[in-house]
């Protein structure tokens, strides 16, 4: 079912705004049921149950069919897609990049640490010297217990353009030798020396295999991370839409050809649990560090 943000969809939103009706949907996801069966499960009278069923039927979430004297309810949809207004923001122009995670230009890391590619480890594990191995550009996963890796993000802005907002996304997790699904770590992200914010990863995940993780990676090694989004705007900085710092676009040096982007686990953090960055052909999201820069042309006065 596809709905939009309009008066025509109010019956759907209203139908879902009830714990009882949510429970009915859950029951009907398992099997078709008649009024008596639903009433018994909910410990409600038939009259009250029918009232709730009518609301769900009016919203076209369920359908009912007759079987003799009984009315059998069944789910009519298995997904509801909500379309928001297309233009929530001014339609800025933009440029995009997808940085390979091995393309860092500076680092200072502490073991456990290492790099991995499609066919195996790159260099020796737990030896920071190998973080400068020329083959690092082929890395699909890098990890370290403390310290940082830093990338250079190109600035394509011209004098006739005004930068309005920057968005980044990266698949991240903590770092524990092999893995630990409950291992919090405070990972700080900064651009041009200005902190975007700190995200606390809940763990270093190996409960299931990563969607793209190569077969050679052991089942009890870190398999995937969580895709996190970072934003710098004229109003502050945000992680997954939640305000994370007071850093503004205006705090960046817009005259630079590139800005340093850093992922860091500080000694002073409350949770020093390391950092793992997943790139293409690893984890659950087949990407490097994605960045999108929104700008508009400056209109001459």
TrEMBL record:
HTH arsR-type domain: residues covered: 1-95
An annotated Gene Ontology molecular function: DNA-binding transcription factor activity
Keyword DNA-binding: yes
Organism listed in the record: Lentilactobacillus curieae
Entry superkingdom: Bacteria
Keyword annotations: DNA-binding, Transcription, Transcription regulation
Protein name from the UniProt record: Transcriptional regulator
Family annotation (InterPro entries): ArsR-like_HTH (IPR011991), HTH_ArsR_DNA-bd_dom (IPR001845), HTH_MetalResp_TranReg (IPR051081), WH-like_DNA-bd_sf (IPR036388), WH_DNA-bd_sf (IPR036390)
